[in-house]
């Protein structure tokens, strides 16, 4: 049996220039567990501008030597770090469950495994951040160098901190940048622990971690002239602001923002024994086992009218079996919502949906609270007969709330799917290759999956269209574009 880690407590310090430090002003933020209201997890420093400046200086100081390091050594460092993270994977998974409320079995463990896999992947391809040579004649040497940008500020959300950190840290470091990570105020503990585990393999200052509020230390990083690139993952609202602030001083910027992704079910995906498998796939794509707190949640479900009732009945029956409970319990399918604000917001969307004329509610376990637990627990809700222009169909709820909409014609469903200011992910369910790929190609989203609904695969491209973001950091090509800049060198020989 797996041993449960001790409940975190005490002061969880930041990492700046290889030192474990508190905030310069000596201020703190209390950390609590979403799964157990009132359970203290200790406190983290409330960093402000002065701390951001110190971390950026440390990262700048470490940059020249790190960029000059042979890629084999950066590779080795990342691979050793991956081994250390793998040895601590269960600890990191449990810490994720405690810190974020994400259930251990379906979400937190896969997340810590993804962290390890991405350190290995980007460690492995560290030598690929390279340029090209132009065949410009024997008296010319014309080549490009892919040079690191410098100091990257990685700003993280709370919903899956390790996974998002894994999408930034190893790629940025493999390319020769140094990094300052800003953990989300609601889920900082796994990031601090990850840094502790990785730090022994990196020179001081190559990886730095700050904790604190977005409006304080986050803003200070975005504005800091010593930050060459802002790599932001979070809400579209804050993302717009980050883009304009970084744009003002012409800093590089990548934005991974929100989504309201479509799940499109064709009649043949429901035929015979495919019914159950497609429903399970939609359940996964909706990220119910992350309480819907995922930017790629397929939260708008479009089902063909011919199979609408049959499919919805199967989906409701599967979703209704999900166990809501303590994130650390192996039996739990759905853990807790991150905080009171998010919890209240989800409830207000449900009230708004219920108030719409003609809406149907085939499943609503939103008031379900597991016995003996006092946390932000929220069972799944499915709305049916929804109109695509209602708020619950247009706005990102970031909770376990799915809206179902019938369709009759492929053009109509593509139009409805694209009628959103978001464009992050999409899921198409059909055995008809032409119908599936025609739909996939016409959807305005950065990532379309056909007949599967899982998370990002190591090595794939990932990023948003429209208000879901700018830039692609994931994949080797994305990382090359996002974490390096090209220098052309032309030499006259002889
Ligand atoms: P958020 O935008 O409120 O916060 C994200 C981070 O930005 C936090 O660390 C926060 O402290 C910081 N921040 C806030 N204001 C800032 C400012 N003025 N300057 C600099 N930093 C600031 O988002 P959240 O509530 O933590 O996360 C949920 C959102 O993140 C959802 O919209 C979700 O879709 C999105 N998200 C997107 C992806 C993706 O890959 N596209 C992944 C995960 C989450």
Describe the structure.
The chain has about 500 residues and is of the alpha/beta class. The protein folds into 2 domains: about 15-255 and about 465-490, Aldehyde Dehydrogenase, Chain A, domain 1, CATH 3.40.605; about 260-450, Aldehyde Dehydrogenase, Chain A, domain 2, CATH 3.40.309. About 40% of the residues lie in helices and about 20% in strands. It is built from 15 helices and 22 strands. The protein has helices at about 50-70, 70-85, 90-100, 105-125, 160-175, 190-200, 215-225, 235-250, 275-285, 310-320, 340-355, 390-395, 410-420, 435-440, 475-485, and strands at about 15, 20, 30-35, 35-45, 135, 140-150, 150-155, 180, 205-210, 230-235, 250-255, 260-265, 300-305, 360-365, 380-385, 400-405, 420-425, 425-430, 445-450, 465, 470, 485-490. The strands form 6 sheets. It has a 7-stranded mixed beta sheet with strand order 14-15-16-13-12-18-19, with helices on both faces. α3 crosses α4 and α3 packs antiparallel against α6 (about 190-200). The radius of gyration is 23 Å and the shape is globular. The termini are far apart. Bound molecules: nicotinamide-adenine-dinucleotide. Nicotinamide-adenine-dinucleotide binds near residues 157, 214, 218, 258 and 295. Keywords: Oxidoreductase. This is Aldehyde dehydrogenase (NAD+).
